[in-house]
Design goal:
The protein has a single domain, classed as Up-down Bundle (Ferritin), CATH 1.20.1260.10. About 75% of the residues lie in helices and about 0% in strands. It has seven helices and no strands. It is globular, with a radius of gyration of 16 Å. It has about 180 residues and is mainly alpha-helical.
């Protein structure tokens, strides 16, 4: 039996303190009658994750500046590719309203508020911790959305393949950030 990273004790402790399933359900319902609202919500979460990593790439300083600068660049570059893959998949399976910019921006704003992002620049070592937490929440979100797609019998073989590849990449991101945070 396959085990999702979100089923590990470490990730359960972080996610259990949130209302993530309720948040995701509400976000899906906000998409109204579009087909594949789960993919629209996934797209929103990917865009939010890319913004976090890219912002950390821009503001990193101090020791180890260069390695952190490259780590955050690697993370957001990878997410940018996934954004395009999911956007094209959701338009192909659904419709162009699945990528409505106004709705995406509104939901990204909710995520910013929900993650407790402040306007203050975090301390050096806090950047990796914030990126790690964001990756952990993303993995949990992805698993919830995949389960929703399976429950509604809307999962295709191609979509399952794309989502499995995304899950694999974010498990790698989780590992890299976990290693970085453990060196503080």
């Amino acid at each position: 039996m396959k085990k999702n990273l979100s089923e590990t004790l470490e990730l359960q402790l972080v996610v259990s303190d949130t209302n993530l399933p309720i948040l995701i359900e509400n976000m899906c319902s906000e998409w109204g009658g579009v087909p594949y609202p789960q993919l629209s919500v996934l797209l929103v979460h990917l865009r939010f994750l890319a913004m976090i990593h890219q912002t950390h790439h821009w503001i990193v300083k101090g020791d180890p500046f260069y390695s952190d600068h490259l780590l955050f660049q690697r993370l957001y570059d990878g997410v940018a590719s996934e954004i395009d893959d999911i956007a094209e998949k959701v338009v192909g399976l659904g419709m162009t309203t699945n990528v409505d910019l106004t709705m995406q921006c509104a939901q990204v704003y909710k995520l910013v508020q929900g993650y407790g992002m402040s306007s203050t620049i975090p301390q050096q070592n806090e950047l990796a911790r914030r990126s790690l937490l964001a990756e952990m929440n993303f993995i949990a979100t992805l698993n919830i959305l995949v389960e929703m797609l399976r429950e509604t019998s809307t999962m295709t073989y191609g979509l399952d393949n794309v989502l499995s590849g995304i899950a694999d990449k974010h498990e790698e991101n989780f590992y890299l950030l976990k290693q970085r945070v453990s060196h503080n």
